[in-house]
Specification:
The chain has 8 helices and 5 strands. It has 190 residues and is of the alpha/beta class. The protein has a 5-stranded parallel β-sheet with strand order 2-3-1-4-5, sandwiched between helices. The longest helix is centred in the C-terminal third of the chain and has 24 residues.
């Protein structure tokens, strides 16, 4: 499963809830990047330059990281990718990774949210968590980058018959219930 949606739509929160219910790992490139930044690794230093500017980390770094993570034993029975793929090139790279492992996606979940709601959520999160990458100019740039590069993936996956859209605005439990009901229509159940 892949989860799509603009920054601040609730992907990380809902991914954790979905994965808990389905018993699969959430594979978040954002978490992997932040762990490397905090650990001061070479990958972290490279990723930080892009993240601080509100840009995406280059495909070469991201693809290698995802391929390595998908080969882990806990992903053998399913997984949820959060933050990958973000570009059409990454979609094709993921297709290749999955084909090499004789796997395919079951569903692509898109969580939708109004841009102004997202900006306010992320500014609130920045205040609560002290996240330096969540300033208003960076948030707005991340939304622009999402619209340019990632939003078109929803159309691509819709054409493949894999896309399910769910409104991400509302109480956490309400959104989770909407998601689980939408996934059940695609045969993805706990």
């Amino acid at each position: 499963m892949v989860i799509l949606g603009p920054p601040g739509a609730g992907k990380g929160t809902q991914a954790a809830r979905i994965c808990e219910r389905l018993g699969i790992p959430a594979i978040s490139t954002g978490d992997i990047f932040r762990a490397n930044v905090a650990g001061g690794t070479e990958l972290g230093r490279q990723a930080k330059q892009y993240m601080d500017a509100g840009e995406y980390v280059p495909d070469s770094v991201t693809n290698a990281m995802v391929a390595d993570r998908l080969s882990a034993a806990d992903a053998a029975d399913g997984f949820l990718l959060d933050g990958y793929p973000r570009t059409e090139a990454q979609v094709h790279e993921l297709d290749s990774m999955l084909a090499a492992a004789d796997l395919s996606l079951d569903v692509v979940l898109e969580i939708t949210a109004d841009a102004e709601v997202v900006v306010q959520r992320l500014l609130g999160r920045a205040a609560e968590q002290g996240r330096a990458d969540d300033t208003e100019p960076v948030i707005r740039r991340r939304l622009e980058v999402y619209a340019e590069q990632t939003e078109p993936l929803a159309t691509l996956y819709e054409q493949r018959g894999l896309l399910v859209r769910v409104d991400g605005v509302g109480a956490l439990d309400e959104v989770t219930d909407r998601i689980m009901a939408a996934l059940a229509t695609r045969g993805v159940t706990a």
